[in-house]
Write a structure and sequence with these properties.
The structure holds two protein chains of two kinds. By secondary structure, chain A is of the alpha+beta class. Helix content of chain A is 31%, strand content 15%. Chain A has 21 helices and 18 strands. In chain A, the strands form seven sheets. In chain A, strands 1, 12, 13, 14, 15 and 18 form a six-stranded mixed β-sheet that branches. In chain A, strand 16 (363-366) and strand 17 form a beta hairpin. Chain B contains 13 helices and no strands. Chain B has helices at 2-39, 59-62, 65-73, 75-81, 84-92, 106-121, 139-150, 186-189, 192-201, 206-212, 219-235, 242-265, 274-289. Mean pLDDT of chain B is 81; it is low at 11-24. The chains are: A alpha+beta, B mainly alpha.
């Protein structure tokens, strides 16, 4: 057992209001430099939709992630031999059009424009070329299903549905959408790290954050094709790749990452989990329908004395183990099993988990009006506006059971709380639902508290990062001891 | 053993001075012979008759040594100066001026003249020139000459075939190389069978001599080549360069074919994602309307 610590995240999609505050917080801190204008280390997508870059989930096109061939894991995009052939041109990269051409507006024109019959306007200017441009697309161009015939209807997840289900999803009375905020998943089996010919990409030992060494990166761009989530970005100014760094300078000073900190809907949870690094290869190569359960089994119980002993032996500080015991991620993923990885079938073992969203109430169209189908606010999950197969394509690696379990538990918690606070549902029914959803009243209460009444400290349990220990691996902390001091501007005329 | 070693050590002290006494005469004579063979035989013989330049037999009796030494330093300078004998030589050589010879010095000129003097006295000098048969060229000779020129028949001493640098009228295909001059009329320029044969035997130009001094053409190779050059010179036309145009045209066609092939092989390559989606949907909308 090779116990290591990993910063792991949970996004509660039922709470996301799609305000993009996280994206802006990230952009303002990290990607407002030249060459990074088009990058959104954090972005929020509308589902159904194609996201950013366009149709990133379509690995037939982008060739991201891992596949199992002859019982071995292979990168879909490259291999040791392929790296040689593709060293000067890595195919399967999103083009600027697939991201979007970043732009600003010529605000000065508002002041400088000659007097005319109408108000002057600020025309869009490309942030890459500086020329006037006709805006064709943006990073959230399909926000709230804008342009749905182009974008929403080409959502790669719809491939799981039969034509009838697809048609239903876009019928007016069933229309629904939800938001999917995305950052780097800081995977346990990162394809980007595996693909890097320069060895610039690495997973930080003490917290599992995946980083690009800007000195070693040679800009081969293998990582951009390899990352199935398209969360590697190429900086055209510096000629090097960049990615989400999980705001490690903030984490090291005990603060939540900017996107977590600024989240209006408080959907984000962050905590450290302990995992068994010995089993990563085995788990990543399992058949697709076993992936979710196996990935869960990689995460170890931080209260288990054997795990604690192994962690200590591996140099994981006691304070990190303590933090793991309070981790909200552990509760969502392991205790309650309502948070699921996004597209586990890419086999990168992503460490960002999503609580799948409850779809809105079913409606029906009578004449020209659309009404609720019943008075029942908590409809049947399999009868939801979004077919369960659609959700399963994203969060269940095609395994609808895992998604149904998470949604049923959420539904049971709602009924239970309704029985407790409002009283329009009788407690017996609520408790029966809890039992059916594999949930105890105490667990329901805990889920309710961490979902609805969570404070800052409940959501972000940040372990002490022990940089003083980590840095000892690279530098001798005593190297300059006795070497420097205030000294004298002029040497004194006495002494030796 | 000690004695042997001693002799070994001090031996050179005795025989090195000997080399200095006896060596120079023999060594210098050999140097002159080598130099003459490498630099002069393409235009001159000693007792073999006139090639491009005059027969040098008894040249030291025709003109005084001082004049000859001076002429050898720079023939062009003598002509420019208006020396009457030099001008006469130029006339006889049909305006071909002897080039400045690389490495020529007054001392070397003296050596050469001494050597020529000695060779002139022999009944048959080693520099009597290459004896090329006078028999008329046959069609077979011409064919063989072409094979040698084009490299279909390898040169016996391993020299590169003519076609790598030269072309001639009728080389066919893309023509020959363009680095050296067109040889269609070389037979005329080098004044016929004998002179050109001598020239081919020991080419005097810097590039040719560098290449062929160690890998000289053989007499049985020179004859067919002469036959070829005589034949091509007869028509009087030079290579018309259609081969060159053909070369570029073929290059262009092959390049286009290669690119087409690449485009076909990598037809399914990744190009764009968003644009096709937009196009597809636009087509759907427009299709619905029309």
């Amino acid at each position: 057992m090779d116990v290591r610590a990993q910063m792991s995240m949970v996004f509660h999609l039922d709470k996301c209001i799609g305000c993009h505050t996280c994206s802006i917080a990230c952009k303002n801190i990290w990607t407002d430099r030249k060459g990074t204008e088009y990058m959104w280390w954090n972005n929020v997508e509308t589902k159904p939709g194609t996201g950013y870059p366009t149709a990133w989930e379509d690995q037939e096109k982008y060739h991201g992630g891992w596949v199992v061939e002859d019982g071995n894991l292979h990168l879909r995009s490259t291999s040791k031999t392929q790296t040689v052939f593709n060293i000067f041109h890595n195919p399967h990269q999103p083009s600027m059009d697939d991201y979007y051409e970043p732009w600003t507006y010529d605000y000065q024109h508002l002041f400088n424009a000659p007097e005319g019959p109408d108000q002057p306007t600020a025309v869009p200017i490309s942030m890459v070329t500086g020329d006037l441009i006709q805006i064709k697309a943006g990073p959230n161009w399909d926000d709230d299903m804008g342009g749905s015939p182009v974008y929403a209807e080409n959502d790669p997840n719809l491939a799981q549905l039969n034509p009838e289900q697809r048609a239903q999803m876009f019928a007016v009375q069933r229309l629904m959408f939800f938001y999917l905020p995305r950052i780097c998943n800081h995977c346990l089996n990162p394809a980007c790290v595996a693909s890097c010919p320069s060895g610039a990409l690495h997973k930080r030992g003490e917290d599992g954050i995946v980083l690009v060494d800007q000195k070693r990166c040679r800009g081969w761009r293998a990582c951009i094709a390899a990352c199935p989530y398209k969360k590697m970005y190429y900086n055209w100014q510096t000629g090097k790749s960049e990615k989400c760094i999980l705001c490690y300078p903030r984490l090291e000073t005990g603060q939540a990452p900017a996107c977590f900190h600024s989240c209006v809907g408080r959907i984000r949870y962050l905590g450290v989990v302990l995992y068994d690094a010995d089993r990563i290869r085995e788990v990543a190569g399992l058949p697709q329908d076993e992936l979710i359960e196996a990935q869960r089994s990689l995460i170890l119980n931080p209260n288990d004395p054997a795990v604690i002993a192994a962690a200590r032996q591996n140099g994981v500080h006691d304070s990190v183990v303590e933090s793991a015991q309070k981790s909200p991620t552990y509760r969502f993923v392991k205790d309650w099993k309502i948070a699921l990885p996004l597209h586990a079938e890419y086999r990168t073992l992503p460490m960002l988990f999503y609580v799948p969203p409850m779809a809105p109430v079913m409606a029906q169209k009578t004449g020209t009006t659309v009404d609720n189908i019943s008075e029942d606010l908590f409809h049947d999950i399999d009868d939801a506006r979004a077919p369960i197969e659609y959700m399963a394509s994203m969060f269940g690696a095609g395994n609808a059971g895992k998604v149904r379990y998470a949604l049923r538990k959420q539904k049971a918690v709602r009924w239970y709380r309704r029985a407790v606070t409002v009283g329009d549902v009788d407690m017996a029914t609520a408790e029966r639902m809890l039992r059916e959803a594999d949930c105890s009243p105490a667990e329901a209460e805990a889920i309710y508290k961490l979902t609805s009444l969570c404070t800052f400290d409940d959501r972000f349990v940040i372990p002490p990062m022990h940089r003083e220990q980590a840095v000892e691996m690279l530098e001798d902390p005593l190297a300059h001891k006795q070497g420097v001091g205030f000294g004298f501007m002029e040497s004194p005329r006495r002494g030796l | 053993m000690t004695l042997k070693l001693l002799l070994h050590r001090i031996g050179p002290a005795f025989y090195i001075p000997l080399i200095f006494i006896a060596g120079p005469v023999a060594a210098h004579a050999q140097e002159a012979v080598d130099f003459f063979r490498g630099n002069c035989t393409s235009c001159h013989t000693i007792g073999g008759g006139r090639l491009t330049g005059p027969d040098l037999k008894d040249v030291t009796q025709r003109k005084d040594r001082a004049w000859l030494v001076q002429f050898l330093q720079s023939p062009q300078a003598m002509i420019d100066k208006g020396d009457p004998y030099a001008l006469k030589l130029k006339d006889e050589a049909r305006d071909v001026v002897m080039p400045n010879i690389n490495g020529m010095s007054p001392a070397l000129a003296e050596l050469l003249l001494t050597m020529i003097e000695a060779e002139s006295k022999l009944p048959k000098s080693q520099f009597a020139g290459l004896q090329i048969s006078d028999r008329p060229f046959t069609q077979q000779d011409i064919e063989l000459g072409k094979a040698i020129f084009m490299g279909d028949k390898r040169l016996a001493n391993g020299g590169p075939p003519c076609v790598t640098c030269h072309t001639f009228n009728g080389a066919g295909g893309f023509g020959g190389g363009r680095l050296g001059p067109d040889l269609s009329r070389a037979f005329e320029r080098l004044q016929g069978r004998k002179a050109m044969g001598a020239w081919l035997y020991a080419p005097a130009t810097p590039t040719m001599s560098l290449t062929f001094s160690k890998k000289a053409l053989k007499a049985e190779e020179i004859l067919p080549l002469l036959a070829l050059f005589e034949n091509t010179a007869r028509s009087g036309a030079e290579d018309d360069r259609t081969g060159l145009a053909g070369f570029f045209a073929t290059g262009f066609v092959v390049a286009v074919l290669c690119l087409t092939l690449f485009a076909f092989i990598w037809k399914a390559r990744f190009r764009a994602v968003r644009d096709p989606l937009v196009e597809l949907s636009a087509r759907k909308v427009l299709g619905g309307r029309s």
